[in-house]
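ARCHIVE CARD
SHELF: 3
SLOT: left
DATA:
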Amino acid sequence: MRIKAIQNSKSKIQNCGLFFAFILHFTFYIFNCFFTGCTTLPKEPPKPKVYLEVPANEYKPLVRELVVTFIDVGQGDSIFIKTPGGKNVLIDVGGTPYWKQSNYDPGEEVVVPFLETQKIKKLDFVIATHADGDHIGGMPAVLKKFPVGLLCENGIVSDQPEYEEMHKVIDSERIATSVLKQGDSFDVDPSVKFEIFTPPRDFYFEGENNNAVAVRLAYGDVSFLFTADIEYEAEDFAIKTYGDKVRSNILKIGHHGSATSTSERFLKAVNPEIAVISVGKYNTFGHPYSGVLAKLQDADINIYRTDEDGNITVRTDGKKFVVECEKNP
């Protein structure tokens, strides 16, 4: 009985303490509201998000920003980069493969108008990742329209019609060219870093896709990995060669989200916060593959798709980044 009495006494003391604390807090709240006009208890400010999806007309540009736009060219790739120093870089231009026998040219009808709306007068650096028509088929229209400082390729001569057409324009416009391989970098703007992860320096893989130029771009603490059409074999090469250096905030999913790209080990190594898939609506290839989407969802990676979101633009000041979509659902 005595023990119980002591416990009850402690409970009463605790209750009195809680009641006194409540009265004190309530008195302070009334006093504060009397002088400040507040109507609710103060709340902690929300923590800032690392990234934020916003409608295109609501974003206020950051100071000294890097802007990367994944252009909606349908079933293909095209990426435009505006560096903090004002340099213009273009990776691929999309295109309709020759075998489709179509007159539609994403270079002329999509990429050129996009660059004109951005008031681009010159392309300082252009990368043709590999010879597939859905990556370089639209290149001639762009090369004819804009002066180019330097155009780089993977060094493989191809007999594909799109490759031959591109080189006819390169020759007629007298555009300087170079080859990019693993370990290369280019200093188009000292505030950012471009690194080449593939193709390998001393050998080539079989097939076009694994020999595509894969580029990592870093600005401050924010990084991008553009993987063109590389598949498992080239992904493994990048992991073995660079290890943790492949880690990037934004990953452009390889080969339009096909079943032969984006292995679990590669995804784990890159560890992206968002994934961008450049893919055509109702394409006949089944891209993106449901298994790739499942991997991204299981890893809690935010997915953006050009077939659903239109042009996808990532803006960063080197510390945080925001994502804006042309189509706001």
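SLOT: right
DATA:
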Amino acid sequence: MSATPIPRTYALTIYGDMDISIIKTKPEGRKEVRTYLKSFREMKSLLTMMLEELKSGHQIYAVSPLIEAGEDDSMMDATTLKSKLEIAFKSQVPIGLLHGRMKPEEKDRVMQQFKDGEIRILVSTTVIEVGVDVPNATMMIIMNAERFGLATMHQLRGRIGRNSFESKCILVSDKSTKRLNVLVESSDGFYISEEDFKMRGEGDLFGVRQSGDMVFKLANLKTDARLLTNANVDSHEFIEQNKDNLFEDYPLYRKIQESLMHLD
């Protein structure tokens, strides 16, 4: 099972030799998560949005690509972000910090405090990407969103919208790219993986590489997606409809089969 829109996974489900079941509906009662793209110049309006969520009794995730300053000065790190938010809210809002360098028991303690509502804003790295369920959290802020992959951001966005309240995901970036706008336009993992697939390739279907293009003599997995999918369906139907008569009406099929039998 996969809920992650990785291009290689998308390509494998379309072209791979496997049976798939598709679930495209949300759990009952959940609303669509609205996604917005804001620049760092709009931080004041973002703080206003955060305050509204807090006044409604809800909680907020704020995700940064880095743990602390010095790793890359061009990005907002989690430690600095926590300090800035404490100043903005005048230390009246309990803010927690969570990242991968913390000891397991410390991470569990912070996460439990957030679940219990003792922490109202959780500043974190991508350690919250999977396995976190706090229904009262209704806002996800992703700083320097251009530094994250679409699959990662889609997973992060999945941490909110787990209740009947309207939830918001805010992508903060000074780079309004086509890639980021894919998330603004849609919350459909299939659409996101298809667009990501077009932009960065399907990776290696026979190996582990998850991006880049495979080179075939004739086919192109990006431009021939519909044709190849239809051919896959038609070939399976053809085999199913003719397996009982051993394809006796198709001498060309027998010729191809005979030629394949002699291949080493």
